[in-house]
Design goal:
By secondary structure, the chain is an all-beta fold. It has no helices and 8 strands. It has one domain: Immunoglobulin-like (Sandwich). A hairpin with a 3-residue loop joins strand 6 and strand 7. It is globular and about 40 Å long.
C-alpha cells in the first residue's frame, strides 16, 4: 500500500520487526518498543508525564519505506517525527502508525 492508495480498513498489524521512539523533555532517554507493554496487537507506554512528545518509527518493517502517524492533534512528518501532546484534558493518547511501500 502506498500513500496514494491508503485504506486504513485494509491495514493489518505487522509481524515483522520495527522500532518506535518516543522522546520529550519529561523523559531522561527516549522510550522504544522495548519499554512498552504489549496488549494484544497494541503497544502501551504507561504513566507518561503530561507534556509534548515526538513519536517516530526509527526502524520500519522490512519492505516498507515510509510511514504516517494518525493521532489527535498530531503534527509533523515521517522525517522529523510527529509531535503530540498529553495534557490534563487528554492524558491518554491513541496513535496509529501506518507503513507504506514506495510509490
Amino acid at each position: 500500500m502506498t500513500t496514494t492508495t491508503f485504506n486504513a480498513a485494509a491495514c493489518a498489524p505487522t509481524n515483522q520487526d520495527f522500532d518506535i521512539t518516543i522522546s520529550g523533555s519529561a523523559l531522561t532517554l527516549p522510550l522504544t518498543v522495548g519499554d512498552a507493554a504489549a496488549e494484544g496487537d497494541t503497544l502501551v507506554w504507561g504513566n507518561l508525564p503530561l507534556g509534548e512528545y515526538v513519536i517516530a518509527e526509527a526502524v520500519l518493517p522490512l519492505g516498507y519505506s515510509n510511514y504516517g502517524l494518525a493521532a489527535r492533534g498530531a503534527s509533523g512528518t515521517s522525517t522529523l517525527g510527529y509531535r503530540v501532546t498529553l495534557d490534563a484534558e487528554a492524558p491518554d493518547l491513541t496513535a496509529r502508525i501506518y507503513n507504506f511501500t514506495e510509490e
